[in-house]
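quick one: 2-OXO-4-methylpentanoic acid bound model?
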Amino acid sequence: MKKVEIHPDAVEKVKKFTITDPQLGFGKYVAPIMVQALYDHGDWQRFDLLPYGPLQLDPCTKVLHYGQEIFEGMKVFRHPDERIFMFRPEMNARRFNHSARRMAMPEIPEDLFLESCETMSAYCKNIVPRRLGESLYLRPFMIATEVGLGIKPAKQFLFIIVASPSGSYFAGDSVKVYIERDEIRCAPGGVGSAKTGGNYAASLNSYTKTIKLGCDQTMWLDSQEHKYIEEMSGMNFFAVINGKLVTPSLTDTILDGVTRKSVIDIARSENIQVEERKISVDELLKLISEGKCTEAFVCGTAAVIAPIASFMDKDLSVHRLKEPAGKIAMQMREKLIAIQAGRTEAPEGWLYPIKDIKF
Ligand code: COI
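yep, here:
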């Protein structure tokens, strides 16, 4: 097993680092260290913990032209007894390799992925926030660093982990959703279930429109009929219909969210019925108008669980939820946060303890 080589200048940097801003926001601050690993000659060569700093890339580096890139989003939490834990990181390790396979990139053995994340977290222990709802957000990513303009899979890659002490993703309490009926995020057979930058780039034009219309998130529909709800780019979708939780079933056009899975697990453990199925947006709007869909929410690692206040359609009609901070959304949110922050017992295997390293 390869070990992460610790560079003393990185340790010095992180020892001196403090944040005094009480408003952490999301991704505003980054830890002064990073893990970096090089893949070359068919294998992962070395893993280093280095000071955070710019990458020097040749202008013809393949990732800059062809977008061969994948990433993950995960969180580290501090418990009241000061121990720190990653939340379900094995799921991120598996999804990272799913993304790698689809994007013709090398997989990282799960134990190496986890060890790299653990080392990064261990050296960031002093900057894992203490306030409830805050955490250290880890962003592992991989880019194709081979140089050349030919379109073929690269043979050289960098894997990097950066970290950001973060608070809540949304400034407000609930989100307004814009239903995108024209553009699509991805299509069957494409890369929609891979966590690759291109999917997020594809969402940005509609995001601009969404914000201009006074909404916060774009809701994507299927590419063939422009009818069925898929996801919101950085978040999955749930609705409460006749007291049951309903979420789109996973396909190769939807990202398999760790928070999505955790919501399903928590709901089932609390005897709330969950249905994974196709939901058309017109069915949803009808159920809202009939009072059968009372609440809906988005969920994701960064977003946690945020209730939806309203949906805006293409004709600019607004469909408001009866319960903009619904009972089930709030119940799921409180339970998830309590598990992550060590305020209640976690299901077996959900919390991955970070070893305490003295430095
Ligand atoms: C995450 O939740 O980790 C994501 O990658 C989504 C992104 C919008 C921040």
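The mean pLDDT is 96.
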